[in-house]
Amino acid sequence: MKTFDDQVMRTEDGVPLKIALKRAERSRNLRALALVAPLFLFIVLTFAAPIGMLLFRAIYDPDLARNLPATTEAIRSWNGEGLPDEPVFAALAADLKAAQENKTAGQIGKRLNYEMSGTRSKILATARMVAKLESGPYKEAFLKQDPRIWGQPDVWHILKRETKPFTGFYLLAALDHQFDSNGNIVRTAPDQAIFVDIFIRTLWIAFLVTAFTLLLGYPIAYLLASLPTSTSNLLMILVLVPFWTSLLVRTTAWVVLLQTNGVINDALIWLGILQERVQLIFNRGGTVLAMTHIQLPFTILPIYSVMKTISPSYMRAARSLGGGPFYSFWRIYFPQTVPGIGAGCLLTFILSLGYYITPALVGGPADQMISYFVALYTNTELNWGMASALGALLLAMTLILYLVYNRLVGIDKVKLG
Known about the structure:
The chain crosses the membrane at residues 32-56, 203-225, 237-257, 288-307, 341-362, 382-405. By secondary structure, the protein is an all-alpha fold.
């Protein structure tokens, strides 16, 4: 009588077949993982990690907590009414003395200056005054030095709130909001609220560029998909030529074309269309025109790839059933190109949101997009918190747009099914 083990299928070396298959599957998975690991590590180091640091820096700001450790501890006991007591002033004096010795008083003043304009110079003056004091009372000395800052509860509210390592100040400022003296979120003063308008401007310019690239790119993609292969390949080379040229070079070329004494103005005057030269550069029109030219291939290629998969027999069948040229195109051909339109427009819109070089060179002051201010706070102001907050909000806008697109595409697929 055979036992259960005798009925198990085995390999030639006696290993149960089930175990041997698991080993082979595990070995294949490990080889695949080894092949993918370098690319995964590259993506993590060059894409995921920088984005994670960007999001983290938007809410993490340890400058005050690091430079004012004694004040951070002492101000916790303050109830927020009136001015703090002598121990808090003494702790701040000790921190400012250390900051004066370590040459970090400027960092403290710079951080406070983000929330109260003109504070940096007063912090530096107070640090120099405190460095000369040997003993208290410090509260009296602070109030005598500058009652306009140390006699205001607002600055102490800021110190109590912002000496914590995590802050919502930058994200709120990027949305034109701020904390008031009671810790409530309020709108920024109208003369200082600029970022919401800039985000709207960024979305509007990206929308215009996407719309113009679609209007220009759809007929071109249709022509490329309809022509014989030899002819369409030749024209496709012309479409791809911008990919072989640097973005900076293409933008500089538009500067040459659009300037007052440029090629376009010369041509329009020579043809008699204009009597006087017009301003084509450093305005919204020039910015959108240059960006449309640069982004046109990104819209054409996805639409073209979808059109190439559509059989010409569909249109012939619609025409044979009595449909007119436009009706057949609109009801039969166009709906099949919608996925390509969505992909091309989404790609163009997302890329347009992050444009920096073209608006900076071709646009005017009222045409700068949010990426300009990210660069400004990164390279000039050295305010990494604000730059990270603006970048994080731009990333959030992009993700929301992508999720909306995915949602709409999913709904369309259900309807078509």
